[in-house]
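User: Can you recover a sequence for this backbone? Please restate the input before giving your answer.

Assistant: Of course. Working from this structure:
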């Protein structure tokens, strides 16, 4: 471990901790001003950002990125506009700090208030997603947290350009300059240093592939909020409307196949599989989707003349992040629920049905962070939930679950008011 690298990362963390204490009591107006300024800078800096991003895209092949991963890495004017709007949306949200969660008066007259406060310093480790740096920075700023951002080498040039805009907006609002810190190196040893700095950093959120998340979870002395994979299911119930089923499956699988809330698994009730599967299978194949099927699904599609292949056992628990979908047929709703709980990753799972009783059984029985009825899995997203953005989608069960917005970036403390009581 180079001594200067360890010193650099430790120094970042110490400064972030100091900044977090000042940011926690900074006025909401100053935090919102930083966000509004950043949104404007994003709007004025398309040329700068697209040029930096193009350098990363050009190097994607040398980093071994797939076509889907390269697509996730790529910025466009439309994506930059969406990013700026997400920043403005966060700025418009109510300030979470100081919210009184509980208040009670004890028999001895002590007044107890449970009040929402920042976590402190949040470290975010991410790979090739250009929106992550901005989403995480603005959510942390708005919620009074300092943050340390460590992006992958695949997106280094884009992150440098974004870092300049974020730092300028923070400074212009009079907030602590160290409130948002970028680790300015692609040396992986820097990550090892960061994960041990539990004296200064209070939470780590990894966003990327399963190998990255497992490495962070296994090597961090700091609490980690994580999701390993997005093995997301769509279940077509016996009472599914055919047109709705087709629209939802197509959207969940093909709108952006390389993201964690895209559908990877399709489960169809046996009563409607002969009628639904040919229609939906044909629509998926027309979109370029490769279908990997169990025996009953393969037979139905073959009889209809639709291209499909037999799936291997591992395919029915896989996150493809590509135009590939595993398809199987189940005899009952209960079997569908058991299948999702056994083979899914507790991320985003949907049922399509007109039967309220079946829907409520699925919503209650599927043990996932987000369970949807008659809606695409693609809606498990901070922007779509009205959070403005998200710092991650948690499949953990402690502290936060699902899209993490402002409130999920807060803890609480107890404020006790007395009038001379002693114990």
């Amino acid at each position: 471990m180079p001594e200067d690298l360890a010193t650099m990362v430790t120094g970042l963390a110490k400064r972030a901790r100091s900044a977090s204490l000042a940011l926690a009591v900074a006025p909401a107006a100053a935090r919102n001003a930083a966000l509004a300024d950043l949104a404007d800078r994003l709007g004025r800096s398309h040329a700068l950002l697209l040029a930096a991003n193009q350098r990363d895209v050009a190097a994607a092949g040398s980093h071994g990125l797939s076509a889907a991963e390269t697509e996730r890495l790529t910025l466009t004017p439309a994506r930059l506009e969406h990013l700026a709007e997400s920043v403005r949306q966060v700025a418009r949200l109510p300030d979470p700090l100081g919210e009184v969660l509980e208040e009670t008066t004890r028999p001895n007259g002590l007044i107890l208030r449970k009040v929402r406060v920042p976590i402190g310093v949040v470290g975010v480790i991410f790979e090739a997603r250009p929106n992550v740096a901005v989403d995480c920075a603005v959510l942390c700023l708005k919620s009074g947290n300092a943050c340390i951002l460590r992006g992958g080498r695949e997106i280094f040039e884009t992150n440098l350009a974004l870092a300049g805009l974020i730092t300028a907006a923070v400074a212009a609002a009079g907030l602590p300059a160290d409130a948002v810190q970028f680790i300015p190196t692609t040396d992986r040893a820097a990550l090892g240093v960061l994960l041990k700095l539990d004296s200064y950093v209070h939470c780590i959120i990894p966003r990327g592939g399963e190998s990255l998340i497992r490495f962070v979870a296994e090597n961090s002395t700091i609490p980690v909020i994580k999701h390993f994979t997005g093995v997301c299911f769509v279940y077509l119930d016996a009472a599914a409307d055919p047109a709705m089923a087709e629209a939802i499956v197509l959207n969940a699988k093909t709108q952006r196949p390389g993201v964690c809330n895209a559908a990877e698994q399709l489960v169809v009730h046996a009563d409607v599989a002969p009628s639904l599967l040919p229609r939906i299978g044909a629509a998926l194949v027309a979109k370029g989707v490769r279908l990997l099927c169990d025996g009953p699904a393969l037979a139905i599609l073959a009889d209809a003349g639709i291209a499909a292949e037999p799936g291997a056992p591992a395919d029915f628990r896989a996150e493809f992040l590509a135009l590939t979908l595993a398809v199987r047929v189940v005899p009952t709703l209960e079997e569908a629920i058991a299948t999702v709980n056994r083979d899914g990753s507790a991320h985003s799972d949907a049922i399509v049905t007109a039967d309220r009783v079946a829907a409520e059984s699925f919503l209650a029985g599927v043990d996932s962070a987000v369970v949807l009825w008659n809606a695409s899995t693609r809606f498990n997203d901070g922007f779509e939930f009205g959070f403005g953005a998200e710092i991650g989608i948690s499949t953990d069960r402690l502290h936060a679950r699902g899209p993490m917005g402002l409130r999920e970036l807060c803890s609480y403390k107890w404020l006790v008011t007395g009038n001379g009581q002693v114990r």
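That completes the design. The chain has 14 helices and 16 strands.
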